[in-house]
Amino acid sequence: MNSHELFERSKKVSPGGVHSPVRSFRSVGGDPVFFKSAEGAYLTSVEGRRYIDFCQSFGPNILGHRDPDVENVVRAAIGEAWTFGACEPYSLELAEWITTRLPFVESIRFVCSGTEAVMTALRIARAATGRDLILKFDGCYHGHADSLLVRAGSGLAGVSASDSAGVPATIAEATLVCPLDDETAFEETMKCFGDRVAAVILEPLPANYGLLPQRREWIENVTKIARARGALVIFDEVISGFRVALGGMAETLGMQPDLVTYGKVIGGGFPIGAYAGRRELMELVAPAGAVYQAGTLAANPIGTRAGLATLKKIENRHVYKELESRSRAFVEQLTAGFAKADVPICISRVGSIFWFHLRAEPTRGDLSGSDADGSTIRRPDRMSPRTREWYAKFFHRCLGGGVYLAPSPYEVGFISLAHTPEILREAGDTIVAAAAQ
Ligand SMILES: Cc1ncc(COP(=O)(O)O)c(C=O)c1O
User: Fold this and answer.
1) Structurally, how many domains does the chain consist of?
2) Average pLDDT value for the chain
3) What is the pTM of this model?
């Protein structure tokens, strides 16, 4: 069966034919490609066509698909136990490995997804402060918990309504939303509501509405103002954690969030998320404290062992250094190619995360939210109104050339250790040709 036939079948048994909206091709048009296998930097479709994959399951595969060292660990793990629902040494080993390396992680608990991690971090913040409100930033996505489906990113950015149906108004009202890159708006909001805000949550590297790198001063100011008003600061590092550095953006910026959430890379491609932070906050969680959170498959041994194998390899093989130099060369090739073809496509990049976008079109006289030349965007409202139309064509030309990008203009791309310089050069040629068409 080909992808089209499988999609027709899938639509009959699952909503929209997919199990997560970002897998559908609604933003770019056409039927999604169905894949049957993956290895390293490549995906193979059910039709037998190979694609260089820059989606990499939306981030977890920092070593590429089925890294051989991780695969060996997983095979051994499967021979021992799939799940215990009881205490075991594997999650302890991962927890110790992380807590001995990240100073702001004194205690950590593993869950099954980033959404779960964020949901619980907010619950802890509310319990710790005795306050109800949460403040998030427009364009940051923190998973699909009710209170956070307010002006989120990624899948929602492609839909006209910014809120999900089915979220009670009373829950949405407990979430305040401020613009990114705007200290004044944040300060004013905190002046009005600060004494009711339990936590300010942010992606310190927003990567769910495109890649919107923030100014260091903005992140520092937000943290300072939040704390001055008695609110906790939660860094949602589900994408950036263990991706831009072991300690994510917190390490890169030299900052210590009160709580931090992880997902993706931490499970090496298996469903693991985590929330972590200061011991006295974490000790509020059951059975130590009164904040309830539990999970049948939490700290699944296959996932924690795959995660630890991934993190150890990252450390031992100096993977961030390697990814940085390969990613830089890739972006330089693309930038030169786009300039030669005279197309207004820019690339934002932080480490091995990149994002293609059209040059920002600041409203007259207002350059905030983007760099002066429009090559870096820091706020969703700076994205060109032509983005969707342009990306749909660009995406399909890349796909036709054998390069699989995320099927949405609001999703970022990921480079893995399996993307060798040769593979990146080949992909770069395809992408430049697609842009120039
Ligand atoms: C920053 C951030 N937080 C939370 C989540 C939710 O994680 P999950 O999809 O594992 O539930 C995501 C997912 O993309 C994310 O990027």
Assistant:
1) 2
2) 94
3) 0.96
